[in-house]
Amino acid sequence: MNEDRKILIIDDDIMGAELLEDFLVTYHYQVNRITKVYNHVVQAIRYHLPDIIILSIYKPEDDTEGLKIARYIHDEYYIPVLLMIVYNGFENLEGFVNTFPFIPLMKTNDNNYKQILFSLQFTEPYRVYKLCKFKSIFWKVMQLGIDGKSEPIVDRNKEHHYLHKKISLSDILYFRAGNAYVKNSILIKLKSDEKHFYSFKNTLVNILRSVPEKFFVQIHDAYIISIDKITGHNLLLEIEIDGIFLPIGGSFTDEARIAINDHLKLVL
């Protein structure tokens, strides 16, 4: 069960990290470890794309490198962090809380490996794959204006240029398949930019493989929407995304209903 689960241990206690690695390997996890050097950690996460990160932080007021790493992980990845902390009753807990750990665990002298193993089981439902681990993705896109009918404006007499743009998944309202004027392309509509679409060469099938399924759902042959941007619906014929009504395809009614119900539960 654990053979394909990758763990990255980030700890300056080299001997302790090595002992923990040996323990987890006996339970068939794939384990890598690294010390808390920010630039090295950034590279290691990108290279290994672990399913879980075990990060040790000592006193928050002293361990600035550890806090910087924790915030980087929270801002850039959908990867659960097991935060190993040293707490003697007088440390600033707020410093630990502000790192947004998935699970905080106390570092003890008797090495609480069983507690770590138990906690790892709770991360399984939050596991995502490959590109889905990134909170932002660089896409090579073309910026297009929007006309009065919410269609992309394409001037065929004008040369359009592509640019590399870092797009936060939390900023995306929906993906839309291109039309006759934007062929073999996907249009992205962002919450932060009401005046433009961003077009890039891709398919909706590939998009579904590169975004977390718990955050996005396909509701039509031409649309994938961000679930947490749902603001209403019209008898399951249309779905409202931040004030924009999009059609629900007949073969996607069940997916739309589940997305609406799940979102309403979260909102309520």
Helices and strands in order:
Elements: E1 6-10, H1 14-25, E2 30-34, H2 38-48, E3 52-57, H3 64-76, E4 81-85, H4 93-97, E5 103-106, H5 113-121, E6 136-146, E7 152-153, E8 163-168, E9 172-177, E10 185-190, E11 196-201, H6 204-210, E12 216-220, E13 223-226, E14 230-234, E15 238-241, E16 244-247, H7 253-267
Parallel strand pairs: 1-2, 1-3, 3-4, 4-5
Antiparallel strand pairs: 6-7, 6-8, 6-11, 9-10, 9-13, 10-11, 12-13, 14-15, 15-16
Indicate the radius of gyration in whole angstroms: 22 Å
Mean pLDDT: 87
Helix content: 25-40%
Q: In the CATH hierarchy, what is the class of the largest domain?
A: Mainly Beta
> Tally the helices: what do you get?
7
Overall shape: elongated
Q: What's the order of the H and E elements?
A: EHEHEHEHEHEEEEEEHEEEEEH
Judged by helices, strands and strand pairing, the structural class is alpha+beta
CATH architecture label of the largest domain: Beta Barrel
* Tally of separate domains: 2
Write down how many β-strands occur, each being a DSSP E stretch of 2 or more residues: 16
CATH topology (level 3) name of the largest domain:
OB fold (Dihydrolipoamide Acetyltransferase, E2P)
Low-confidence stretches are: none
C-alpha termini separation: 36 Å
- Biggest β-sheet strands, sense, barrel: 8 strands, antiparallel
Can you walk through the features of this model?
- By secondary structure, this protein is of the alpha+beta class.
- The chain has helices at 14-25, 38-48, 64-76, 93-97, 113-121, 204-210, 253-267; strands spanning 6-10, 30-34, 52-57, 81-85, 103-106, 136-146, 152-153, 163-168, 172-177, 185-190, 196-201, 216-220, 223-226, 230-234, 238-241, 244-247.
- The strands form three sheets. Strands 6, 7, 8, 9, 10, 11, 12 and 13 form an eight-stranded antiparallel β-sheet that branches. A five-stranded parallel β-sheet has the order 2-1-3-4-5, sandwiched between helices.
- β12 (216-220) and β13 form a beta hairpin.
- The chain is elongated, with a radius of gyration of 22 Å.
